[in-house]
Fold these 4 entries.
Entry 1:
Amino acid sequence: MDNTRFVDQLQQGCQALGVGLSEDVPPKLLRLMSELIKWNAKVNLTAITAPEEVLEKHFLDSLAVLPEVEGAASLLDLGAGAGFPGLPLKLARPAMTVTLVDAVGKKVGFLKAAIAALGLKDARGLHARAEGKPEAEGIPRAEVLIARAFMDLPDWLNLAPAYVLPGGRVVAMLGKAQPEAELQARASERALRLVSSRQYRLPFSGAERQLAVFSQA
Ligand code: SAH
């Protein structure tokens, strides 16, 4: 896939997802992809390296969350791995402070290198293991907590609230859709409130996704 087609597909995908992307973002995502592919040859970061797949399964899947993080001054991505969803979200919303945490040093090595290569300000890769004690772990709290492919919903709802600033929210990225009543039940068990949830599909593969947002009750 050449760069022109990549950018076209990206714009088309974002349109289908209902998220806006300014013109300067696609070239940055291309740069991120080349860093990812370069590093992946040495360090095992992701099984997804074909450009079509990186585009949809990493980039569009991350950018689909934009409506849920809109307006946040700070975002914390726990178990960020190769930087998803945090890095594409940072590229799309450069004013947002983004901290990307992973327990594996070589992944954080990539995150730091990618942040430097992209010249990102107010973005940080942090080598830490999140276990519910942000101060002790040196992990800063944020307005919005996010993670992808990190924990199942019950574990995520147990862990994430400790990292949220007062008035902030926890986003859950879910694969298989769960009924709203189920989400509400998981929330009220923990004195949380279900703020919103929505189901959608990725634009090219049709893969099902669900996003749920929680806050303190
Ligand atoms: N979010 C990325 C990576 C998912 S894999 C994506 O969707 O592509 C889960 C990642 O979480 C791995 O990189 C693993 O090293 C990291 N991880 C697992 N437990 C962790 C913990 N307690 N704290 C921080 N990172 C953790």
Note: Residues 78-82, 84, 101-104, 107, 129-131, 148-150 surround S-adenosyl-L-homocysteine (CB under 6 Å).
Entry 2:
Amino acid sequence: MVQLKSPREIDIMYAGGQILYATHEAVRAAVKPGVSTMDLDRVAEDFIRSHAGATPSFKGLYNFPASICASINEEIVHGIPNTKRVLRDGDIISVDIGVFFGGMHTDSARTWPVGTVDADSARLLQVTADSLEAGIAQCVVGNHVGDIGAAVEAVVVKGRMTVVRELVGHGVGFQMHEEPQVPNHGKPKRGAKLVPGLTLAIEPMVNLGTASTRTLADKWTVVTGDGKRSAHFEHTVAITVDGPRVVTRP
Ligand code: MG
Ligand code: MG
């Protein structure tokens, strides 16, 4: 069931989304060689809880044990923070965070370079970020969910990379995961219609090599089928009569 949000509820999501944005910036400042993914989890959780009424959405969700998902290099999403997973110069690290504030969830992911990364990795981050912006631009009243996926995929194909199909964006707000699903591929004018009050997490996951995925024995971490690198960018976007309102950035 699609649950639309009132302008007031969207304002609350914006307030929580600003905490989430600032959390990403705090994590970004901590990303450097020698830091573990558990260190980043602590930075994020402490920062979120330092805001009255804010809690990490992911902790305990489906029994996930941490406040962030931290996925290095060929890990696409859902990496579990671990003191033994230490960042090295040249890595890329995808950080996915959810914040619950004022009764509403927001969801956002960024991928950071660690130190100096190779040209392919730098391009991967740029193409993935660009594909998210293309998807956001389609979040206007009267468009369809398929317009978002088609726009994301077009940027990725042009960049000669691949879109992950097994994992999708989603409605978000009252719960972390709501209807509708928002695939990162699709056909224009297909799928659910975009109406005012719809709030979507748009989250392209883009691979340098094959689009195929597999899940590790920890039952969480999703990695690329060929071991090549993957990036993940995500924002929570409200559909409004004035156009897309990205609530997870200023
Ligand atoms: Mg997310
Ligand atoms: Mg999401």
Note: Residues 137 and 244 are 7 Å apart (CA to CA).
Entry 3:
Amino acid sequence: MLAIGHRGACGYQPENTLASFRHAAKLGCPWIELDVYFVQGRLIVIHDDDLTRTTNGTGLVMDSSFDYLRSLDAGHGEQIPTLQEVLDVVDTCMNINVELKGPGTAEPVSELLTTVCQHNWHSDQFLISSFKHDELARADSAFRRGALFGRPSDDMIMRSKQLGAYSLNISLRLVDPDLINLAHQAGLQIYVYTVNEPQDIEQLRSWGVDGVFSDFPDRVMDNQKK
Ligand code: G3P
Ligand code: MG
């Protein structure tokens, strides 16, 4: 079962910052997840569409200038990073799940990842995911896709297959053994978010889940050692 550091290792460092990604690397985490928006031609890494919760700024990400976003404190004096900066810091030591949060992110993410794959990265080191399936469908099919689901629905497997997804990425609230079996029969990996309690991690492992997103990815790695 893969340990996927949620927004880096955001139980320990401010989410979606270079400090959080560095901490995940220090923990030995094999995968990290991050969220992206495309602002004034630059891909930036932040979760909310509003700046208030995670920065000292105000207003909407998509209404802000890139310079304003970069002037903000995203926690512990960290800047909101660009995706390019994260790629540089990670330097192929961890695999990356890029979650498309903002509009118009599929094409620039695909272009950037294609470029880095012509150098030191390999396409298998990335997973592109989104709750916005129209956006996800525009991601370059050279990269694995993760179809994200946060609400109950009867057609999750069918929609994942239609998207050409590699994985079905689902909320902890919605997962059960039947769905896991059906996903596996359909040739899909199943990744579950956001799983922080050791007993939940253990249960998902016993059910045969393929990966879990955790704010404390070391807890997932500790579970594997048992
Ligand atoms: O990709 C897993 C998880 O990050 C999805 O939810 O809201 O944390 O981006 P959210
Ligand atoms: Mg996310």
Note: The radius of gyration is 17 Å.
Entry 4:
Amino acid sequence: MSVLTTTNIDHYCVFGNPIHHSKSPLIHAMFAEQTGQVIDYQTRLAPLDGFVETVRMFIAEGGRGANVTVPFKLEAFTLANQLSQRAQMAGAVNTLSFVDGKIIADNTDGIGLVRDITQNAATPLRGKRVLLLGAGGAARGALLPLLQEQPALLTIANRTLSKAQELQNVAQALSFADVVAKSWQQLDEASKQSFDVIINATSASLQSEVPPIPAHVFASTSLAYDMMYGDTVTSFNRYAQQCGAKTRDGLGMLIEQAAEAFFIWRGVRPDTTRVLAHFRTKGSV
Ligand code: NDP
């Protein structure tokens, strides 16, 4: 009998490199306790050139599912036998289920973002003007869930304009018309347009940088959302606050994407507000 199946506990993990910093084991332990589910969830460091072997080993040990984080989300996409529409749109995968010898893959990052904005921050997106900054994996993952909320307009701005245009094309192929791609310079146009929700899906905050976007995109009623989170206010959110906007970081997105993965695996939806409140109090994610 394999290592993991010697107990009655279902085993899950998160693959990444590095991975020691991950809060996912604690988040899932809280979900499990809350819902009465008996699971074990650990971190698994995969070598940079050994992701597939590490996943296969976990499956062979009896693992039931896994999350995938940096830098393996694209490799997980190619490894999957079956992809959800969200994963197909994102071109990346963060949630794997191992069922009947198959690897079934999903991407819960985008729905996690949308739930945090619409439910936790009580900010509806329907009929709103939304500005999405960035066109990397996180922005791509957010595209479909954002459009399904039916905003009046979605503008995607990115340092490399062609990548924003690629996302625009993906959206238009799905008959979402009101999607516009812009460069940073094109945001600074004469109309001085502001947005209801501005989402930073660039990785600029990781280097304490801010995308060079004009102050007029923020109004006093705008919600500025930085997907990044940390112990202190991110550089993007500091700038947005200086421009008068309300701000929120990506901690809620992290917890909501985990909740969606938990739901996929266990069929039960945990109460994320309690978990989010716990981490906000600890201030340690
Ligand atoms: P990618 O590497 O796939 O994409 C990076 C994006 O940021 C690209 O659009 C890139 O532009 C842009 N960019 C990078 N550096 C700068 C800079 N200095 N100024 C302006 N733009 C820049 O990263 P991801 O999409 O995976 O991640 C983006 C962010 O989202 C990260 O901060 C990550 O931590 C966060 N995230 C948070 C999650 C959560 O649960 N809260 C989940 C997933 C991601 P270009 O195309 O021109 O290179």
Note: The radius of gyration is 19 Å.
